[in-house]
Design a protein that fits this description.
Strand order of the largest sheet: 1-2
Number of strands: 2
Radius of gyration: 20 Å
Shape: globular
Distance between the termini: 35 Å
Structural class: mainly alpha
């Protein structure tokens, strides 16, 4: 006989993973629309959003870190950054004492673009979040952190080699 606690955990896992999968699909669609709106390739728009968000939280990305975040080779990332830089969407700077360290920053127009495009979503999310207490939001943030850490641990342990044919 199945343990009711196990059944409940499985039920919650399935529901939560389904909602997160739907969020991922919606986020991907929003990113695709942002790319179309800016007349960019979707990978370029994804990189631009990563650069903007990292900068927005006070932790600008290096080209190597961006490469990891968007799963591109260093050569492909360099070509992407060159395109974004030529278009005025980003700039690179060497503000660290170690002048070899390059950080990526969004160009002045990008702030306008992101505010215009993502502003309505931010307004709706803010309105939705007002329905929850600070304690509930703290619990949800903790849950998401734990969930993401769990996924990262699994990804780190997984073998990246293709499955052998049987």
């Amino acid at each position: 006989m199945e343990n009711p606690e196990t059944r409940d955990v499985i039920k919650h896992r399935e529901l939560i993973v389904n909602e997160l999968r739907q969020f991922g699909a919606n986020y991907a669609e929003l990113s695709r629309r942002f790319a179309t709106w800016l007349k960019l390739h979707s990978t370029d728009a994804t990189a631009l959003v990563e650069i903007f968000y990292a900068e927005d939280i006070g932790s600008p990305l290096s080209p190597a870190r961006l490469s990891e975040r968007i799963s591109l080779s260093s050569g492909a990332t360099t070509a992407l950054l060159n395109r974004l830089e030529r278009a005025g969407h980003i700039f690179r700077s060497r503000e660290d004492a170690d002048r070899r360290i390059v950080t990526l920053h969004s160009g002045p127009k990008v702030h306008e673009y992101t505010a215009e495009f993502f502003g309505p979503l931010a307004d709706h999310v803010d309105a939705m979040l007002r329905n929850y207490t600070p304690d509930q939001l703290d619990q949800f943030e903790n849950f998401l952190n734990c969930f993401n850490n769990t996924m990262r641990k699994v990804l780190e342990k997984q073998n990246l080699e293709p499955k052998p044919e049987s």
